[in-house]
Amino acid sequence: MTDRPNAHDALLGATSELTYEGGITGTGVDAIAARAGVTKRTLYQHFGSKDRLVAEALSERSRRALLSLEVNARRRSEETGDPAILALFDVIENALRTKTKAGCAFINASLEINRPGHPVHEAALAHLRAREGLVHQLLVEAGVDDADLAKQVVLLVDGAYAVGGSRRDPTAARHAKAAATALLAGRVVS
Hints:
By secondary structure, this protein is mainly alpha-helical.
């Protein structure tokens, strides 16, 4: 194994895949290095520790996930005529059917490494807060600027991921969408 120019990215990708599939504590640095095609020494040279590697992998995954959620919710909104805040649940259902079968990587990580201040826990919470911000933004764009309502819709988003992932039931997102629709009834400007 050699230290290739893209070892950093290969390590982030391998870490993201393996920790999502097998959990953070269930994934060792040997497996990560092997999947990335690098040595453990290279792993430690790039990241210093497994915790920093996992935190950075979560942060990178977060950037991609948030962009994907927003872009796909807006695209779905254009297709269906639903406000983007409701189309978001269609995007979640599709993700649970295809690539996010084990639920939300960030909820999973925050529960598995549930120690305040731990870099992995903080990276997971940063994503969840950013996703909450996206929900609030989409509500505002739909004509509803209500912080309490945003928190309720965030619970539906998180619940869709948690139930959909733990039960391997993508329709949880559809049920969450129905609840969100009821919460928003008469409040959304189309």
